[in-house]
From TrEMBL:
<dbReference type="InterPro" id="IPR046342">
    <property type="entry name" value="CBS_dom_sf"/>
</dbReference>
<protein>
    <submittedName>
        <fullName>CBS domain-containing protein</fullName>
    </submittedName>
</protein>
Length: 186
C-alpha cells in the first residue's frame, strides 16, 4: 500500500450520476431517489450524486442532508456547523444559535414553494480543501484526511479540476485485503 496512489483507488467522475447546479430542490429529491433505486437494484455501483456547473465541471456532491439544509437558507450564516458540534460546542449553545438565526421558523410551511423555487446552486458549495486530494498523492495523505475529517469520500483533483472521488469503502476494502494477505506473525 505504500506505493499506492490516490489515482489507483479513485473512481472517475464518469462513474457517477450527475445533476446540474441549476436544478431545483424537487429535481434534486427526484435525482437522489433515482440514484438510490439504481444502487439498490444493482444498476449503479454507488448512490453518490455529483453536481456539475454549466461547463460540466464538478462543483460538489449532493446528499439528502444537503436537501434538508437547503430548505433553511439561514444555515449559510453559520459557518462550519459540523465542526462546532464536533469541537465541543454544547447542545445549549447550538440551540441558542438556532434561535438567534431563526432556523426552521417557517421552512416546512413553505415546502412546496421551496421545492420548485430554490435552486441547488444556492446551497451546494465547492468542496473544502480538507475534502480534496491530488490524484498523484500517496494514499497516506488520503488516509489522514479520511480519519481527521471523518469523510465518507474525498474529491480527487488534477490541477484544479475534479476528476474523481475516492470512497472510504474502497480504501477500507483495500486495507482489509492487504491485512489478510499478511503472513501470520510467529
Amino acid at each position: 500500500m505504500e506505493k499506492t496512489k490516490v489515482r489507483d483507488l479513485m473512481r472517475p467522475v464518469q462513474d457517477f450520476a450527475r445533476l446540474s447546479s441549476g436544478a431545483t430542490l424537487i429535481e434534486a429529491v427526484e435525482a437522489l431517489e433515482k440514484s438510490q433505486q439504481d444502487y439498490l437494484a444493482g444498476k449503479a455501483p454507488q448512490r453518490i450524486l455529483l453536481v456539475e456547473n454549466e461547463k460540466g465541471e464538478i462543483v460538489g456532491k449532493l446528499s439528502p442532508m444537503d436537501v434538508v439544509q437547503g430548505l433553511e437558507p439561514n444555515y449559510s450564516k453559520i459557518d462550519n456547523l459540523k465542526e462546532m458540534s464536533r469541537f465541543g460546542f454544547s447542545a445549549e449553545t447550538l440551540n441558542t444559535m438556532k434561535d438567534e438565526y431563526r432556523l426552521w421558523e417557517k421552512p416546512l410551511s413553505e415546502l412546496c414553494r421551496k421545492a420548485y423555487g430554490v435552486k441547488i446552486d444556492s446551497f451546494v458549495r465547492l468542496p473544502a480543501p480538507d475534502h480534496m486530494v491530488a490524484a498523484e498523492e500517496r494514499m497516506d495523505k488520503a488516509f489522514h484526511r479520511f480519519v481527521v475529517g471523518r469523510h465518507d469520500s474525498l474529491f480527487v483533483q488534477e490541477g484544479k479540476q475534479i476528476v474523481g472521488l475516492i470512497r472510504f469503502s474502497d480504501v477500507y476494502q483495500s486495507i482489509a485485503e492487504t491485512m489478510r494477505a499478511c503472513p501470520l506473525a510467529e
